[in-house]
Amino acid sequence: MSCVPPNSFLIAKHRKFLDRCLKVLPAAYSSLDANRLTLLFFALSSLDILDELERAIGEEERRKLIGWIYSLQLTGQSGTRELFAD
Predict the structure, then answer these.
(1) Are 56 and 47 in contact (CB under 8 A)?
(2) CA-CA distance, 76 to 85, in Å (whole number)?
(3) What is the dihedral of CA 19, 52, 5, 7, to 10 degrees?
(4) pLDDT mean over 23-50
(5) 65-77 pLDDT, tens per residue?
(6) Which of 19, 21, 26, 37 is most buried by a 10 A CB count?
(7) Domain limits of the chain?
């Protein structure tokens, strides 16, 4: 068993956890499924802060994430524009 100094920040372990969160939500966080977009934001932001974003997410996965985010947006064709019209 290796002894880790209390001040050390384990970047590799944090990256692995965040990468796993991007792929499959851990069971402990399943109640937060309605907040997937918020969790995605924090996972991506955390990877960026750790300077691990480019290594963690490939080009194809990045395109899929962008597509998923855009799919969540409401457009005028969905009837929301009329709902908020003056």
Answers:
(1) yes
(2) 11
(3) -110
(4) 84
(5) 999 888 888 776 6
(6) 21
(7) 11-73
Residue that the structure tokens 């005028």 belong to: 76
Instruction: In whole angstroms, give the CA distance from residue 75 to residue 58.
Output: 29
Distance CA 29, CA 77 (A): 33
Distance of alpha carbon 19 from alpha carbon 52, whole angstroms: 10
Task: Record the pTM.
Answer: 0.66
Q: How far apart are CA 20 and CA 23, in angstroms?
A: 5
> Can you read off the two tokens belonging to residue 9?
């920040």
Position 4 pLDDT exceeds 70: no
| Mean pLDDT within 22-32 | 78
* Over residues 39-67, mean pLDDT: 91
What span, in angstroms and rounded, lies between the C-alpha atoms of 62 and 10?
Answer: 25
